[in-house]
Design the sequence.
């Protein structure tokens, strides 16, 4: 029986595609292990008993005020850039520990193959210096392999093909130099592995490692000019509701107010959480609109008592909820976007950062919802206008 180690970093949304793949692999007779941040141990246990933790400090960092300032678009652009460079300096010990944790998982589980997230540096190191068999699973486009019509994630909204091409060169260079060479070469010396050269790693990522883009072809058909070892498959999503049961209050709310609007920003925060909460109350009252609100990490703040046609939670399986709502307002994470798409629900995306702006564009171009606006431009009037537009889809 082949053993496969699934290795991923990030928030809950970065875990789910790997958990879904793990279930699929187990059903096909593979023995599966997970290497994830320690905080996801219980989540991984829903799929496999083989769990190898990465330091909890990574997610602690994501929840820190400095990172929230960046992801929430709080403060001026220059202040966020300054904060980002400070984090890059301060987090080097954490990044190095992540690499060591990833190698420990490999040595302990002894897999025949490693399937990894682009944020994980060790699989590249192991493939190029130890001959390990690795594959890359990416839940979003416009990250490694160039798309002629779109720039790389986080590199603007331009449609100029020359800039688009340059943006991937810049992104790949930064990713390689910082995440793999900058963090990895010191540790490789400890392991008596020869340090990397930039061209070697770039060639591996673009031309050698098998890559699966696990995204919907309805939103992103595979470019005809991509190489044969790169495939767009489809977004993987496991049945999360089988491990969860709705409360009696929630069941009563859905029964009394069928097909409410859903609003939630996942792990994102913003500079106006109370203003967002107030706007939702006003919208519900003005249009007699039942709303299901996921306050999650604090992107929406609402004072009690709530009107009876608003229900507030912090965590819920989307595959249970999205089959019961009329439309979805969210931040534009890949997982939420695909979960709503799975149930053909109209979507309004208020992007906060990174790939969320891309999903906003792709959802609108696919005719699934209106073009949203960045969360930092939030006003009650603009939000009301866009929600009413959404409800007409």
Sequence:
């Amino acid at each position: 029986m082949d053993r496969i180690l699934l290795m991923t970093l990030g928030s809950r949304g970065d875990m789910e595609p790997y958990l879904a793949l793990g279930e699929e692999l187990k059903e096909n007779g593979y023995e599966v292990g997970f290497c994830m941040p320690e905080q996801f141990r219980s989540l991984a246990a829903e799929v496999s008993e083989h769990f190898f933790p990465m330091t909890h400090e990574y997610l602690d960092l994501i929840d820190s005020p400095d990172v929230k300032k960046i992801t929430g678009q709080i403060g001026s652009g220059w202040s966020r850039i300054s904060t980002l460079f400070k984090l890059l300096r301060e987090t080097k010990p954490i990044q190095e520990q992540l690499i060591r944790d990833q190698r420990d998982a490999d040595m302990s589980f002894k897999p025949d193959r490693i399937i990894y997230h682009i944020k994980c540096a060790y699989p590249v190191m192991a493939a190029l210096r130890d001959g390990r068999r690795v594959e890359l699973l990416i839940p979003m486009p416009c990250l490694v392999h160039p798309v002629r019509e779109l720039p790389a994630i986080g590199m603007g909204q331009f449609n100029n093909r020359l800039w688009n091409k340059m943006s991937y060169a810049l992104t790949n260079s930064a990713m390689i130099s910082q995440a793999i060479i900058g963090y990895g070469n010191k540790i490789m010396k400890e392991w008596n592995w020869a340090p990397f050269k930039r061209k070697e790693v770039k060639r591996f990522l673009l031309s050698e490692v098998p890559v699966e883009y696990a995204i919907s072809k309805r939103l992103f058909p595979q470019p005809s000019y991509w190489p044969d070892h790169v495939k767009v498959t489809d977004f993987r999503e496991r049945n999360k509701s089988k491990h969860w049961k709705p409360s009696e209050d929630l069941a009563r709310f859905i029964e009394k107010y069928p097909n409410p609007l859903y609003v939630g920003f996942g792990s994102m925060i913003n500079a106006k959480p109370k203003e967002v909460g107030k706007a939702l109350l006003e919208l519900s009252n003005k249009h007699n609109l039942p709303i299901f609100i996921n306050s999650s990490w604090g992107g929406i703040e609402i004072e009690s008592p709530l009107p009876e046609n608003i229900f507030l939670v912090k965590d819920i399986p989307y595959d249970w909820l999205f089959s019961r709502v009329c439309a979805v307002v969210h931040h534009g994470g890949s997982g939420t976007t695909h979960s709503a798409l799975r149930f053909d629900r109209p979507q309004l995306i208020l992007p906060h950062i990174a790939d969320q702006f891309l999903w906003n564009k792709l959802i609108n171009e696919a005719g699934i919802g209106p073009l949203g606006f960045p969360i930092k431009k939030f006003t009650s009037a603009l939000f009301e206008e866009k929600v009413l537009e959404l409800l007409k889809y």
Remarks:
- The longest strand covers residues 31-37.
- The domain at 240-390 is CATH 3.40.50.2000 (Rossmann fold).
- The chain has 15 helices and twelve strands.
